[in-house]
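During the reporting period the student researcher (J.K.) took over the structure-prediction task from the postdoctoral fellow and processed the backlog of single-chain submissions. One of the processed entries is reproduced below for the supervisory committee.
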Amino acid sequence: MLRDWQYDGALVQLHPGDLGWFWRFGAEATAAAVRTWSRDGRILAVGLLDHPKLLRLAVAPDARRDEELAQRLVEDVTEPERGVLTEGKAHVDASMCALVQDLLCKDGWKADEPWTPLRHDLAEPAKDPGVRIEVIGPERAHVRTAVQRAAFDGSTFTDERWHAMAAGLPYADARCLVAYDDQGDAVAAVTVWSAGPGKPGLLEPMGVHREHRGHGYGTAITVAAAAALRELGSSSAIVCTPSSNAGAVATYESAGFQRLPEIRDQYRVA
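J.K. obtained the following structure tokens:
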């Protein structure tokens, strides 16, 4: 269902790969973090509590002008007793549904800092990344997790969490890649998530080892990510990064991604 809602030309929204990446915390935690909105037995919207203060949404394409659904979504995220978001400051990513955004704005929610989505059409083969790329399996999970921790300050991505992620349903259509330099050191990593043939695939996350930045490895691993998604049948590759992270935006562009219009979360003050 969430896979069916992904299509080229759509605004960026919750992707099956977002659930897959969250699955590193385990199946029970993932199930507890998912919210759905239904009518007459049909699911019309899905949300993922990335943490207790951030809800990321996807809305069925034919329900994005549904005023009743939009009103219910806004009421549910605005009233803490409904159990969607906790009290105090909170964020909602509803960038795919202008109606929900407008209602949140009328209710006093503010636009947060911009994010830049980028897209790479995969009709043509990707160029050679120029470095050795390894597809990571269970026996090499420690390499993937080590690069993640070296790329992101405060990362808690352990071998145990990699195995939990890989055991999740979304990982059946995913790959973890690691790039190596000429000395054989692991320098960058990415996880890519397919939503099925002919659907946009997602990069989440991509990072370069802090001791190996400035040598083009981010571009190389991103090129490899696009190639991997093409092999999985994806029609395009998508990624989203804070607009303030100019280096990341430039890296994706150098790998052949094209900028899309900026998006913003909505937030309420505490």
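The committee noted the following: The mean pLDDT is 96.
J.K. will present the remaining backlog at the next meeting.
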